[in-house]
Amino acid sequence: MTISPDSIVFWQWGIFSLNATIVLTWLVMGLLTLFSWLVTRRLSADTELSRWQNLLEVLITGINDQIRQVSHQEPGRYLPFVGTLFLYIAMSNLLNVVPGYMAPTGSLSTTTALAICVFIAVPIYGVAAEGSVNYLKHYVKPSWLMLPFNIIGEISRTIALAVRLYGNIMSGTVIVAILLSLTPYLFPVVMQLLGLLTGMIQAYIFAVLAMVYIASATSVHQHTAQSKS
Amino acid sequence: MAIDWITVSAQIVNFLILVWLLKRFLYQPIIRAMERREQRIGQRLNEAQERESQAEEKAHHYQEMRDEMVRREEEFLTKARAEAEEKKKQLLDEARGEVIERRDRWQQEIQQEKAEFLENLQRETVVIVQSIARNALEELADTSLEERIVHIFLNHLKSLDKEASKALSDSDEPVLITTSGELEPTLRGRLTRAVHEQIAEEIAVNYVHSPELICGVELSHGGRRLSWNLADFSDELNTRIEEAFSPTKPAKDEE
Per the CB < 8 Å rule, is B4 touching A6? Predict the structure, then answer.
């Protein structure tokens, strides 16, 4: 039984291999981009709009609202990063219903890559919001003694982020595969549906947690500014 | 559960590309479209608000105009009613005046016609009475009317008391005897002699003929007069006829 799409290799040249994870990621990227392009090439700024545009507007407004709720900040600059995290993970997980498809998020490589992106994005947003010195001071608060713990915290939460998503999606796939061999008819369908729900929830959790980490890095500045004013 | 770091790095790159692609094809266009829509809706709301305020202003203006029109209408109606009332009163007064005038004129005409009728009747009556009397006298007594009149007048003259005779003889002026018709010379002679006997000897006596004197003789001297004629009977006749034509007569009869 194939657990990770990493193990399906289509083409290899030295250490570089073109495995299913990358190909399926490209597929998801292509679908998302193609769909976005098809809808947004004829956008209406009037009150009458197409149902697809309406869907995208509802989606983006929803993401914006979530960002606003979590960060208490304007969502403008966080939307591309957090929104893409959510859309990519959600789309990857949704496509699990397609026979033969394996979610790229079921690969630890993919979830690690996404977690690393969050790990890097947090200080970038933090430094952009309050400057490098102020951001770095955040690690030695309330005292220098906390520095190693803060660093361990940063790394462990990144690993948790990666493993949580990987574990959920991979377990779903494995459970369905096991159930298919035990009760091949009705029960796997129910589990598949459950898998869709889990996939959506995981996408939401991953995006919201990423936003929480970013918000915690940027809100220090906000709090200081507010207390000063 | 192995991590392929090549795949990880490829996925990081893929993710960043996806971020750029979605930013380019999804977030920016959609957000711009939403902003444009918000802008348009805001603009439309502003326009609607402006139009509403304009409409309210116009409505207020029209309401004021309507009130003004109603007020003018009321004013006009009140004025028209007053004028109509005044005109009616004026017309009624005019009509009443005209009716009174016509009634007066009509009554005047009736009075005039009545007077003319009575006058004609009197004249005709006198002529007829005179003619009847004359014929009767001629046939019954073989004498003329004038002769009988002179005879009666002479009786009156002779029956005057002394005071009356003296009063008649106070003046030296000639005696004027007026008769209704032309007298025969014998009758004139009798009258002249009677005057000389009763009033004064040798006094001049003049004779005048006047148709106004109805069938009679009148003697005037020194502002005094002595007469006998049918005018008295005629007056009596007139009084009777007037009483007969009087509108109050039947009412009196009813009483």
Answer: yes
